[in-house]
Amino acid sequence: MPKIKAPKGSPSIDMTPMVDLAFLLVTFFMLSASFRSSEPVDVDIPTSISDKIIPENVLLITIDPGGRVFFNMSDPEARRELLTNMAGKYQIGFNEEQIKRFTFMSSFGCTMKELPGYIDMEPNARKQFNTPGIPYTDSTANQLKDWINYGNRAALNSGKTAFVEAENQGKNPDANDYKPKFILRVDSKTLYVHAAKVIDVFRDLKLNNLNFVTSMELAPI
Prior knowledge:
By secondary structure, this protein is of the alpha/beta class. It has one domain. The protein is 40% helix and 11% strand. A 4-stranded mixed β-sheet has the order 3-2-4-5. Strand 4, helix 7 and strand 5 form a beta-alpha-beta unit. Helix 2 packs across helix 3 and helix 2 runs antiparallel to helix 6.
């Protein structure tokens, strides 16, 4: 009986499911990603050989070349508590939409009186906003001191909540990882006197675990 020969041909693979999967992944990442808001001020930070990265639960103070001070905070829930406390002290009202926008806003540098209008602006318009920054030189009207003080309290509360949640999940967390971290970012052209005054604010509040942001440079050989 003659042997039957199978027809020769190269195997083919249907790539349609792979294309569908690729588009599904792209769609997922587009819908789930949270885009970072643009910063209202750009600073040219000095360099160093430190290799530590910026941690979580951060309070960030930025000083631009002109000495204006900007404030930022990483935790959204802590930002909501912070704004509520600041609004109560300075007797300034914020509607729910403004509170929501502030919760996810980037750095800001304005007076409490200017803040409601600043929140209502689009991110690109905030860069053009003419403001002296957060007041910090007058001991009787040091709004930066209040932002840091209330921000520290709010960050402690949110950190405790996150720590308890991690414990309940059996992660054996380190309490120090959930405490607020204070970071000062200063433009390389900023006069030292401006940075010294901000450092004095932290000293007055007895918050001595202050870190400085730098860009990475090669270590000397």
